[in-house]
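Bench log. Compound arrived from synthesis this morning; before running ITC I wanted a structural hypothesis for how zinc ion sits in the protein. Inputs:
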Amino acid sequence: MRAYILKTIDYGDHGKILKAYTETGPISMIARGAKKMESPLRHMTQSSMLIEADLAKGELPTLKEARLLDYFPAIKDDFDKSTVLQCVNELIYVNVGEDDHERLFDFLMRFIGRLLETDAPFELLALFELKFLWFLGAGIHLKDCHLCHTKADLCYDSREGALICVNCAKDPTRIYHGKEIPALLQYYYYADLAAFRPQRPDKTDMKIVLELTDALYAMHLGYKGRAKGILKSLL
Ligand SMILES: [Zn+2]
């Protein structure tokens, strides 16, 4: 089976447990001896690698043989892109449940394909975060004002996690993000990955968007990513 490695954990002196994602869902496997210098598994049992895995049967199966399908060197060699992919790996590892895995695996592969060639990796991360939130059943309402449903003069109410129009935005204790932010969130949420075009926000707006997606994950899933903390320090 094709397995994309999300995370590895040391196992004994020389082995690793691989936490991977496949078309049928998340899977754990033991790669025995993978840390030994002479092991054929050594170079293909790292996170963010796609392998063809031949597994023994069992609750926690042993990886008998593996073939490296791709290690995405253009991402590995780029610090921003590899950090974005770590954020994605962590998002899937922690949050994925009984979802449509075939569809998510396909989306992940297409996402990595876009990440390889893009010059806007942080925007792609925002797109992944928002679409994955929807995928997990925590869809957010970004079509219009959540109170009166007008589509004009929208701001983003971060405490509500929704759009609000300027006429309804009257609570002086709240921060309403206006200007570019609602348009960016809408674009990343609804855009088709294949047709994605970078919106080129300035650095401040990009940072705000990535803070707002964090707030949405905290609100809906109680999730706070470690890799994302590193990524935000790059901005
Ligand atoms: Zn309104």
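What the model suggests: The chain has two domains: 2-71, 74-144+151-234. The pocket of zinc ion is lined by residues 145, 147-148, 150, 164-165, 167-168 (CB under 6 Å).
ITC booked for Thursday regardless.
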